[in-house]
Structure formats: C-alpha cells, structure tokens
Amino acid sequence: ELQLIKNFQSSVFEAFLKGTSLETCYHSVATVADYWLDVLYSRAANMPDCELFDLISENRTMSNKLEEYGTQKSTSISTAKRLAEFLGDQMVKDKGLSCQFIISKKPEGSPVTERAIPLAIFQSDPSVMRHY
After folding, report:
1. Between residues 131 and 114, the one the model is more confident about
2. Is CB count within 10 Å lower at the N or C end of the chain?
C-alpha cells in the first residue's frame, strides 16, 4: 500500500475526532480530503520531489540474490536489474537488497513488472535520468 494512501487514511480518521458536532466533524474531514484532492489534481506541483517520492514509491527487500531468481518476474527483480545496469553488478550481488521504486505509467500496456523504476535514478544527473 502506498504511503499516500496510508497518510490519507490516517489524517481522515484523525479528522473524524475533531469537532464538537456532526457538522464541525464533517467540515474537519472535508478540509483534510480537500488537501489530498489538491495534491492529486495538482500532481503534487507544490510538493518537494523527495516528499512526493516518499508518498508514491514502494520498498521491497529481496530475500535471495538476484541471480537466484532466474527467469522469474517481479517489480523487485526488474528494479534490481535496473540498479545493476545503473550502479554496477556489485551493488546487487548480495541477499537482502532493498528495492525502492515507483511504477511508471509508460509504456502503456506493458506489464507492471516492466515499468518499475528504481528511485535512485531520480537522484542522479538529469542526463542519466532521461536515459533510464
């Protein structure tokens, strides 16, 4: 579950406890919901990139070495392969690799496993980022 959803749920549930009447309670919840709608509709334009990535990224840990997965497909495996291409094979050779990634919208129609992009790429130079 994305952190975005967890944060939304947490803040909405907390807002239900505010207010002294049903009307003020609903007003409090509406204010919180409006904030999150603004974030979505604006595509987080007013949010720092690091905050946005925290909200929309996934984090998984690989229990085995990358080579042990063979031909299996998963978002973690795709992320690890891209990290190996990006940072070098030595960076992904051990068990317990932490794969932090986002799922790209494009290429549309491609399986989700093929659209996983390591977060580390977004922290690199713009030319490197565009390449990947």
Report:
1. 114
2. N
What strands lie across the sheet with 58-61, from one edge to the other? 58-61, 98-103, 116-118
Tell me the C-alpha distance between 101 and 64, whole Å. Answer: 18
Sign of the Cα torsion 12, 14, 16, 21 reads: negative
For the CA atoms of 61, 95, 66, 127, what is the dihedral angle to 10 degrees? 70
What pLDDT, in 10s, does the model give residues 31-48?
A: 999 999 999 999 999 999
**pTM, two decimal places:** 0.79
CA-to-CA separations, 15 to 21, 36, 43, in angstroms, rounded: 13, 13, 23
pLDDT digits (tens, 9 = 90+) for 51-85: 999 999 999 999 998 888 989 999 999 999 999 88
The token duo for 40 is: 């979505």
How far apart CA 84 and CA 71 sit, in angstroms, is: 16
Secondary structure (3-state) at 99? strand
C-alpha neighbours within 13 Å on the C-beta side of residue 126 = 0
Residue showing tokens 């068990």: 95
